[in-house]
Model the fold of this input.
Amino acid sequence: MAEEDELIHRTWVDSNRFVPATFVKPVRRFMDLEAASGVLMLIAAVAAVIWANSAAHELYESILHTEFLLEFGPFELEESLGHLISDGLMAVFFFVVGLEIKRELVLGELRNPRDAALPVLAAVGGMVTPALIYVAFTAANPDALSGWAVPVATDIAFALGVLSLLGRRVPPAAKLFLLALAIADDLGGILVIALFFTREIDAVAIGLAFSGLALVWLLTRVGVRSEVIYIPLGLLIWYFFLESGVHATLAGVALGFLTPARPMYGVGEFDDRVRKVLDRFPDSTESYDDREIADHEALLLAQVSRESVAPLNRWEHALAPWVSFLVVPLFALANAGVRFEGSILDRLFSDVALGVGIGLVVGKVIGIMTFSWLAVRFGLSRLPVGVTWRHMLGVSATAGIGFTVALFITALAFTDQVLTDDAKVGIFAGSIVAGLLGVVVFRWSGTRRVAPDPYENPPVQESEGPVT
Done:
């Protein structure tokens, strides 16, 4: 039995021994859940709030303000731990966001203009309307107006996590629509950060940053694939963005856009190369020469297999777990700590908190539903197959869950700690209400699916798209 177990489970992690079976496998099953990253993010946010309001709140602040000095030759970086998380680790988050946006633009839901029109226009409505509602609530407070962009963002992890918990009540096409909408929303949020939250620009630093991006583009065009070149170059580009006054996380987005979305070898070429390698593979490895040949062919096979996967997919697959289960929870822990001094109700009913909360709950629903209806009404797009307007209402409500990017923009928008904390309260309250509203609407919508109509929705001919 032990031998059979050894054949099935080649590694210790996959075995049925006590430690992996008791601790490792449950963690891996949890990480495979669609809602897992959102749950971990929520735990980190709650922990931050509790810590910030405990007797150890000074320790929380002191840890975040701990200064680090990093020197490497002529490059010097001095940042607090909080800024390293927001400017450094979040650059990795935005790199993955850039990969997701490019994948959707080149290969996914946003590739076809007619199919992309609905989520893109819905995202525009879901950004403009919450911003207007926020401005209406804070018009009398000039210091608060800088937070107008806080309620425009949708948190993909939380929103998709809520839909995954509803199971068959949510049509698959509704989830895809929310994903496309959230990605278009992320793109809009990135543009907002770039255009409205950029400090005075250092021309030399930004010139060096864009020169680095141009070099990355050139290297991808000539077929250079080695991470040994791209990782140091990416770090340099990030550093120059940080020094330029343009927010450093935008370096991650730009590098994501430049990552090739197609593999070096297509399906036919992969099959041909693999067969040639296998034909040369020795029947046995008893002799030294046969082992040498086997090792060489195995390495060649590994290289062919690796280059038959697009760099975009490789990077996204490698980094997504780290972003979901480390970067975002750390960001939540560092930024969600709201210290409640005085009445919680006073903070909840402040103009900033109301503007953010109502912007997320009411603004997202009105904006997404209105712009979606206009897109369908004027023939710019159509509802996804199997999705009704009730489902669209549920998606619109769920899109009001704003967390990661909303907290990120809050940190950029305000210098006053009181306004920052009010905005965080609005984000928490609005996101909770939006999530509950989405659950209620989808439960009210029922599980009935609409059968696809092949004449109304003919299949779209896939195009090859750009090489990168």
Remarks:
- Confidence is low (pLDDT under 50) at residues 1-9, 448-468.
